[in-house]
Amino acid sequence: MTASTATTPNRVRGRAGTLLVAALAGLLLGAVDLAGQLLLPYPWANLANSPAVWAAAAFALGAWVRGGPTRAVPAGIVLLLVAVEGYYVAATLVLGDDLANLWSPATVVWLAAAVLAGLVFGPAGAAWRADRWWPATVAVALLGAVFVAEAGREFRAGHVPTGTMLTVLGLALVLLLGRSARQRLVALAVLVPIAALGAAAYLAADLATG
């Protein structure tokens, strides 16, 4: 057996282990989301159910995964898909919700959003960890922007405390994850157009759903 073929089973086991961790983390994320909504006071309960927080979870997992985007993408997607279904399973067990929520049309929309978010934020986390200047800078800007974009929606809905918290978190993440003053400044500049696009997408989605 050559060295290259000998490492193949290890790579397969490594990928399988990564997906297992992603699935377990997804179950935890879904359960914590529900628990946060039930136990935390306003506006913290809103933050527990924030799509931006879920995106940050995919980013964190992508940063943890070794192997770059080839592992970060499926890990992020699995994390969020399992989190969506885990949330509804927890709601069934704790609140007595209908188990049919697992495959309802609304859930299908959330599952599609989970795939998209995992596809974007999983590799963003990996790019930040790899620490190549431009990809890492854009990754940090993306993470901050998803919080600021959601904050815009909350402000528009009149949820000022939630919007303020999301804005502060988004900016704080950029300052925390940026590795130099220059990278932080550039990431903040890149954040602005990305957040504007995200806010426009939120607005379009709200108008489409009435």
What attributes characterize this protein structure?
210 residues; single chain; mainly alpha; globular; 85% helix
Question: Mind explaining what this structure looks like?
Answer:
Keywords: Membrane, Transmembrane, Transmembrane helix. The chain crosses the membrane at residues 44-65, 77-96, 102-121, 133-152, 158-178, 185-205. There is one protein chain. The chain is mostly helical. The protein folds into 2 domains: 1-130, no CATH class; 131-210. The protein contains 8 helices and no strands. Helix 3 packs across helix 4 (69-95). The model is unreliable at 1-6 (pLDDT under 50).
The general outline is globular
Q: Rg, please?
A: 18 Å
Q: Strand tally, please?
A: 0
Work out the strand percent: under 5%
Largest sheet: none
Helix content: over 70%
Spatial separation of the terminal alpha carbons: 62 Å
Q: Pick out the low-confidence regions.
A: 1-6
InterPro entries: DUF6518
Keywords: Membrane, Transmembrane, Transmembrane helix
Transmembrane segments: 44-65, 77-96, 102-121, 133-152, 158-178, 185-205
Pfam families: DUF6518
